[in-house]
TrEMBL record:
Identification of the protein by name: Acid phosphatase
GO CC field: outer membrane-bounded periplasmic space
Entry similarity comment: Belongs to the class A bacterial acid phosphatase family.
Molecular-function annotations in GO: acid phosphatase activity
Ranges for domain Phosphatidic acid phosphatase type 2/haloperoxidase: 121-233
Gene3D superfamilies, sorted: Phosphatidic acid phosphatase type 2/haloperoxidase
CDD domains on file: PAP2_acid_phosphatase
Species the sequence originates in: Oxalobacter formigenes OXCC13
Length: 257
C-alpha cells in the first residue's frame, strides 16, 4: 500500500547482537543497539503532527489572550529557582542535561557509559519525535513569545534565542521529547511512575517559564509524543531494545539496592 503524501518511512535493519542498527534515510541520525537473532527489516511510518494537530490559536482568539496572560505572569519567575530549572531543562543534549532530567525521579542519570541500553532506546525516541513534531512547526511557523513581544523580553536560555528565532513555536518539541521520555521511563520503572510523570509535566511548563513557548504550544506537544511512543511500541526492534533496557535497569538496581 502506498504511503500517504508527505509521510516518512524509517527502515530498521536489525543485525545480530551486539551490532548496531539504524534506519536508512530519510531519518539518518537515529541509532539504536539491538540484540536480535534475525536479520528482519521492520518499517515504522512516523506520523506528521501537521496531519492531526489543529492550527494554533489566532491572535484575536480567547486562547491567545490566555497564552499572552500566562506569558506575562511567568515573566515574574525571572531569577527564581524555577527559572533556573527551566534553563537546565532547555538543554536537550542526552549526554548533558537531558540525561539528568529525570535523575531525581528515576533514580539515576541516563548515559552512554552507565546505561547504554537505555541511552540508545532514548536516542531512537528523541530522533523520531523530532520528525513528528517538526512538520507542524514548519507549516504553522508560529512566532515564539520573545519574538512576538517586540520588547524582546529575557528568556532563561539566551544562548538559544537566535537559533530558535525563526523556528516555529507550535508545538513544543522540548515537551514532546520530555514527556515521551517520561512515559518510557515510567514503563521501565513502574514503582516511580508518579514522580517520573510529574517531572515530564514540568518539562512543558519549563518552556513557558523560559519564554520560548506559549501555553497552547505545550498542550499541542502532548499528541506527537503519544503518537510516536505508540508507533515505536509496534516495532519489534524497539520492543526488544525496551526489554533490554528493562533488564539493564533491573541489574543496576540489584547491584545498587
Amino acid at each position: 500500500m502506498p504511503l500517504e503524501k508527505g509521510r516518512k518511512t524509517q527502515r530498521f535493519a536489525i543485525k545480530k547482537c551486539p551490532d548496531v542498527f539504524m534506519p536508512v534515510a530519510p531519518v539518518r541520525t537515529l541509532v539504536q543497539t539491538a540484540c536480535a537473532k534475525d536479520t528482519a527489516i521492520s518499517r515504522i511510518e512516523i506520523i506528521k503532527s501537521v496531519d492531526f494537530l489543529p492550527a494554533p490559536p489566532g491572535n484575536d482568539s480567547i486562547d491567545f489572550a490566555r497564552d499572552s496572560e500566562i506569558y506575562r505572569q511567568t515573566q515574574a519567575e525571572k531569577g527564581s529557582k524555577r527559572w533556573q530549572q527551566a534553563a537546565f531543562d532547555a538543554d536537550t543534549r542526552l549526554d548533558k542535561n537531558a540525561g539528568a532530567w529525570f535523575e531525581e525521579a528515576f533514580g539515576m542519570k541516563i548515559g552512554k557509559k552507565d546505561t547504554p541500553a537505555l541511552y540508545e532506546l532514548m536516542l531512537v525516541y528523541i530522533r523520531a519525535q523530532h520528525e513528528a513534531a517538526r512538520s507542524a512547526k514548519k507549516h504553522d511557523r508560529r512566532k515564539r513569545p520573545y519574538v512576538y513581544d517586540k520588547t524582546e523580553n529575557e528568556t532563561c536560555a539566551p544562548w538559544d534565542k537566535d537559533s530558535h528565532r525563526h523556528n516555529g513555536s507550535y508545538p513544543t518539541g522540548h515537551f514532546t521529547m520530555g514527556l515521551g521520555m517520561a512515559w518510557i521511563l515510567a514503563e521501565i520503572t513502574p514503582e516511580a511512575q508518579a514522580a517520573i510523570l510529574k517531572r515530564g509535566y514540568e518539562m512543558g511548563q519549563s518552556r513557558v517559564i523560559c519564554g520560548f513557548h506559549w501555553q497552547s504550544d505545550v498542550k499541542a506537544g502532548r499528541m506527537p509524543g503519544a503518537a510516536v511512543v505508540a508507533q515505536l511500541h509496534s516495532d519489534p526492534g524497539f520492543t526488544r531494545q525496551l526489554e533490554k533496557a528493562k533488564a539493564e535497569m533491573a541489574a543496576i538496581r540489584t547491584r545498587n539496592p
